[in-house]
Specification:
single chain; about 170 residues; alpha+beta; CBS-domain; two-stranded antiparallel sheet; 6 helices; 5 strands; about 30% helix; globular
């Protein structure tokens, strides 16, 4: 069963908007790289859109941060490394003009674009604004992870009083 069918065989077209992360963390191009590294580590985030005056100007990844910290020929001690990346701004290491996709694009198109360009994240852009991001993890989860069952709200739970019967 591929992307074009459901379990019942009826046609369906899963869209990027169905699986994208709408609550994403973005950064400005003039932010310091050490801040970005901290946010990525603490938030377990691997990619951050770089937005300047409401417009997507780049994307920065964990790989970009790592490459920047390894760019010097010196062997860095932890403190020196931290000081070095603190001296860099995001715009020095970000990928400019990132590859994007529209929210109504198919998941297959997103996967194809990521594979062709060997990237792990696509910003979702509509009418010039970033609406979210879709990552390889999102695509894999949408294909292989069963949705979590809906848990009723506490107000919806019905309690039944059971009387104890002693022998």
């Amino acid at each position: 069963m591929g992307e074009g069918t459901t379990k019942q065989g009826s046609p369906t077209r899963r869209r990027v908007a169905d699986v994208m992360t709408r609550d994403f963390v973005s950064v400005r191009p003039d932010e310091r790289l050490d801040l970005v590294e901290d946010v990525m580590r603490l938030g377990r985030i691997r990619h951050m859109p770089v937005i300047d005056r409401g417009r997507l100007v780049g994307i920065v990844s964990q790989r970009d941060v790592l490459a920047a910290s390894l760019s010097s020929e010196r062997d860095f001690e932890a403190v020196e490394r931290r000081s070095f990346i603190r001296s860099l701004q995001v715009n020095a290491v970000m990928t400019r003009d990132p590859i994007v996709i529209a929210p109504d694009a198919s998941l297959a198109a997103a996967a194809r674009r990521m594979t062709e360009h060997r990237i792990g994240c696509l910003p979702i852009v509509e009418n010039g604004e970033v609406q979210g991001v879709v990552t390889l993890t999102d695509l894999i989860s949408s294909a292989y992870v069963e949705p979590a069952p809906e848990v009723p709200l506490v107000e919806e739970l019905r309690c039944v009083r059971v009387r104890s019967v002693s022998a």
